[in-house]
TrEMBL record:
Domain F-box: 61-107
Pfam families associated with the record: F-box-like
InterPro entries, A to Z: F-box-like_dom_sf, F-box_dom
Protein name (database record): F-box protein 36b
């Protein structure tokens, strides 16, 4: 008896870039993800991306990744730094969020009662992550050096005779 072929949801094929130039074919149906390449045989659901594609086809979407960035940042604000580091290792999107300036600014503002204007200016220059991991004494030194540079630069622009 002939096998009824399932409707394909996605089908892509082509040739890979040099130097390998293997031919490939990706077929996604409602029940299978099949990856074929120039080598004999088929790999069914053997790679994580193929498993993820199969889950999507079966309606098992990962809704956490679909949440807006603002909600992710709100959730991340309640995590310990060790958990943030673990979260960054889960996927590219969370890695990007965990290293974003928005996250580190939020973290600094959460750990400090008030953030002085000098620290905000320094954070714009050095980055909020660097400000977070620098102790307060070192920050004070950097702020005073920055003020001295700005004063000496202003003195050079407007010499007094």
């Amino acid at each position: 008896m002939a096998k009824v072929q399932e409707e394909s949801l996605l089908e892509i094929g082509g040739q890979g870039p040099a130097p390998i130039k293997d031919y490939y074919h990706l077929l996604i149906t409602s029940t299978q993800v099949i990856w074929r390449n120039a080598r004999p045989g088929e790999l069914k659901e053997s790679h994580s991306i193929l498993n993820y594609s199969l889950d999507l086809c079966q309606g098992q979407a990962d809704y956490l990744l679909r949440l807006p960035e603002s909600i992710h940042l709100k959730i991340m604000s309640h995590l310990d730094l060790e958990d943030v580091a673990r979260l960054a290792g889960t996927c590219c999107r969370f890695k990007q969020l965990c290293s974003s300036e928005e996250f580190w600014e939020q973290t600094v503002r959460m750990h400090w009662d008030t953030v002085p204007a000098e620290v905000e200016e320094l954070a714009e220059e050095l980055g909020w992550r660097n400000v977070f991991f620098t102790n307060k004494l070192q920050l004070q030194k950097q702020i005073s050096r920055r003020k001295q540079r700005n004063q000496s630069g202003a003195a050079r622009e407007y010499p007094t005779d």
